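I hope you will forgive my troubling you with a question about protein structure. The matter concerns a single protein, recorded as an amino acid sequence and a row of backbone structure tokens. Please examine both parts with care and let me know of anything in them that strikes you as inconsistent. Here, with my thanks, is the record as I have it:
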Amino acid sequence: MSVIPLQPQTLDDAPIHELHVRRLLVAIDGSPEAELALRAAMTAIEYDQAAITLLVVVPDMAARKRVMYEMADAYIALPGGVGTLEELFEVLCWRTLGLHPRPIGLLEVEGYWSHLVTFLDHAVDEGFLSHENRGLLLVDDDIEHLLDDLAAERTTPTL
């Protein structure tokens, strides 16, 4: 595993509101995605010093998930495909099982997550998902509001 600090930083217990400044990119070594991610990160840094603060290159998906799990203060899912959904539901499942206390959020972008949220609400109505577990997934279309909600959730003991 390679850890590349892209800016001077500390990995201390920074407030969750600093997540939009302290960003982590975890890429799989040797994959085309890792190469693209590294180029994108370096390009972003040229224009925005707060873009990515730490790049971690790992050998495989299992290591990527482990690093994200170990280093995360919270989880925020942006619009994505099946990999994003898999990771989202894994951390949500782990939270319902009491394996971690971290808050989980969806950043709603132009209605991307609306059908998923409707499905989860339907699962509650049908008795397959509890209201409590549904409430573990915070959704907002405003990043600042979502960060505030995640910060409030993080300070509220739920396990």
Remarks:
- Helices lie at 32-47, 61-71, 82-96, 114-125, 131-134, 143-155.
- The chain is about 45% helix and 15% strand.
- Residues 32-47 form the longest helix (16 residues).
- Residues 32 and 38 are 10 Å apart (CA to CA).
